[in-house]
User: Fold this.
Amino acid sequence: MSSVAADVSTGRDEHGVASAAADAPSDVATTKRVGIIGAGKLGMTLARAAVAAGYEVAVASSGPAERLALSVDVLAPGAVASTVEDVADSADVIVLAVPVHRFRELPSDVFDGKILVDAMNYWPDIDGEDPELAAADAGSSVVVQAHFPGARVVKSLNQLGYHELDEYTRAPGSPDRIAVAAVGDDRLAVRTVMHLVDRLGFDPVDGGPLAKGKLLEPDGSPYAETFSADALAKRFSTL
Assistant:
């Protein structure tokens, strides 16, 4: 795995980009319940991390909750198996972690009014050719937002693979803590997701509007690239 070495410091750069957890704004929506849509490796990893961070966590996938219950008990103890509808109704923040070619199978109004974290990445070799996603100059999250027009979409938690999300959590202030960015047009939703990122064990970076989501997407490399908060903030401030 490649890494960008830089010292982590607090504060904002001249472009106003938040570059460390300590600078994350305090006016965030109350988050007690986190819902995970997707029971693959990423979804289960995020569920474990959210349970460890003290959240009430529900995991949903296609099909009935009973079919998922054993996997959740084994892979994310402390979380509960649920349905998409129940997660959408009860969770404060919902993480969408399904293969990206399947998000259109979900009803377009199911997440209305909810903070929806798009943790998906488009991989043509896995997802197949998708002309709409491939042509999205601002990134795939703008397509996700268009499909769920009533949701408060934030692109985040997609930069790292499930191994990194499992292994690289660190306490605030740790010198080797790595950063995870959040971008979105709803500023309260972004700040709320930044608070979630911090509690999960990473330095949150506010990357700006959803149109900057392309900067969070993989370049085709099979290895995740890790950044300090300062280095990741600079990635956004140059554009």
